[in-house]
Amino acid sequence: xxxxxxxxxxxxxxxxxxxxxxxxxxxxxxxxxxxxxxxxxxxxxxxxxxxxxxxxxxxxxxxxxxxxxxxxxxxxx
Length: 77
Hints:
Layout: E1 10-12, E2 21-25, E3 28-33, H1 36-45, E4 59-61, H2 70-76
């Protein structure tokens, strides 16, 4: 029958050398994000925009949370 309460397991991976973070659902790469807004847009395009990006426990943040974007700090100085 399948599991009707199945929720997507989204992983925002640890930042790469350029500061971008890969966003995956299971084995599928949904996109590359370099900012929190990118994560929101990637999930919207994957029809997962009902997820609260910063608060949802459906998203696993690896190597830093929603505020950790090492690529951005260089541009702000």
